[in-house]
Amino acid sequence: MFGGWAIEFVRRSRWIGLLEHLESLPWKSPHSVQVLVHDEEDECFGLWMIHDGRLVEIPLPRTRRAFWPSPFTGEVDPDSPGILIRTDGPGGWPDGG
Fold first, then answer.
1. Do the Cβ atoms of 14 and 37 come closer than 8 Å?
2. Gap between the Cα atoms of 78 and 60, Å rounded
3. Taking the CA atoms of the chain, what radius of gyration do you get in angstroms?
4. The whole model's pTM is what?
5. Hey, which residues does 57 pair with through a beta bridge?
6. Per-residue pLDDT in tens (0 to 9) along the chain, 97 residues
7. Closest CA to 47 of 68, 29, 61
8. Calpha distance 73→61 (Å, rounded)
9. What is the domain partition of the chain in residue ranges?
10. Spatial distance between the Cα atoms of 21 and 40, rounded to a whole number of angstroms
């Protein structure tokens, strides 16, 4: 029997501790845990799975994660998850990347 739950967050700042919390739970079968995350600006869900005790994003075909530097500092925020973009859609990869 499979179980699951769902929760929705509007912005990354609302789910910044979620992955760490999920990692800390006593999973019966950590290798079977799958977390789907869809941030407000993502074009599709990202898949996260536990590897070596940590939730890591699993690369999905025809998707890339885009990161942009801050207009104030010129650096990418290390806590920013970026935006998950589909590369096979009409917009393609931003900035030709």
1. no
2. 22
3. 15
4. 0.76
5. 48
6. 456 766 666 665 566 678 888 999 999 999 999 998 888 888 999 999 999 999 999 999 999 999 888 888 889 887 777 889 999 977 666 554 4
7. 61
8. 32
9. 12-96
10. 21
